[in-house]
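Reply to dn_fold:

You asked what the input looked like. This is it:
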Amino acid sequence: MTGVIVRPGESFEKALRRFTKTCEKSGILSDVKKNQRFEKPSDEKKRKRNQAIRKHIKEQLEANV
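and this is what came back:
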């Protein structure tokens, strides 16, 4: 579970900003958005396969540089 401790003298807005950044880094928001509606298993496999292809191409481009 993500949380932040408010430091002495720190404003609420700054602590809230730190909390949202930690949520973004941990992937909580993307998980929530992903689970908002049902995804068929075939669509999930297709999405994961395309994601793996993009990752592989990106790694190949970085290796060639």
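The CA atoms of residues 41 and 47 lie 10 Å apart.
Hope that clears it up.
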